[in-house]
Write a structure and sequence with these properties.
The structure is a homodimer. The first copy, chain A, is of the alpha+beta class. The first copy, chain A, has a domain of about 100 residues: Roll (Thiol Ester Dehydrase, Chain A). The first copy, chain A, has three helices and five strands. A five-stranded antiparallel beta sheet of chain A has the order 1-3-4-5-2. In chain A, β3 and β4 form a beta hairpin. Chain A is elongated, with a radius of gyration of 16 Å. At the A-B interface, α1, α3 and β2 of A face α1, α3 and β2 of B. β2 of chain A pairs antiparallel with β2 of chain B.
Chain lengths: ~140, ~140
């Protein structure tokens, strides 16, 4: 498979519009089963509060996965992300209702590299809180 | 929550023994549902081969999640990983049988930082193939 976005048509500074991802308690239960990370802070409100958290919080890797999906959806190729790194700067708190929490991901092309690769800087927020910082992906374009 | 591993007891060069994680087709189906990444290369063998892959392959973020779990299990705190970055260097090919594929993750403490943090370098292999390279996590210890 190869990317849809063409390297030659991309400019440094170009913005990738924000996409909102909803995360509900049930998503975290599914993610626990899929990842094998069953820590109670991700599904048990009583336990989360007992250890000092405001409420159940999303797995950091879940949030990171949404940011990864944002990049591959943009590039049009699930294998487009070559390098991926983030700092987990804040928690995504997930209330027990149907709206859940929202993770809003946006990006900007920060650098053009060789071999038709670009560096995409990512921002992930939940409400006004930045939940990933120093998030960047090296992306293989067409 | 806080980590179990104590910063003062850790030395640079210390190795974290390998842990093997099994990944079966059903894990990828669960991961698709949890992450929202339903690309067919992760569950449809016919499609995967049609686009030139050897077989169904694991989501890169799934492999990365196992490496993250390795670190938090070692540290004893699900929130211990502050920074996390990898290069996706090769695919994890998942055969259609009960044994599935194995992702073997090991680590070494590469650097001691301020604030009781350490840099852990990670190796993730499937068989003899390195599936993550330049994988590193900054980990908050006790």
């Amino acid at each position: 498979m190869s990317a849809v976005v063409k390297y030659d048509e991309i400019e440094v500074g170009q913005e990738i519009p924000a996409v909102d991802y909803t995360v509900r308690r049930v998503d975290l239960v599914m993610y626990a089963g899929a990842s094998g990370d069953f820590n109670q802070i991700h599904w048990n409100e009583r336990f989360a509060k007992m250890v000092g958290l405001p409420d159940v919080i999303a797995h950091g890797m879940y949030t990171m996965a949404q940011a990864g999906r944002f990049v591959t959806d943009w590039a049009g190729d699930p294998g487009a992300v070559v390098d991926f790194g983030v700092r987990f700067s804040s928690m995504v708190v997930v209330p027990d209702d149907d709206r859940g929490a929202t993770i809003s991901v946006s990006g900007v092309v920060e650098e053009k590299l060789e071999d038709k690769r670009v560096v995409v800087g990512l921002t992930a927020k939940s409400g006004d809180t930045r939940v990933l910082s120093k998030a960047r992906a090296v992306v293989q374009l067409a």
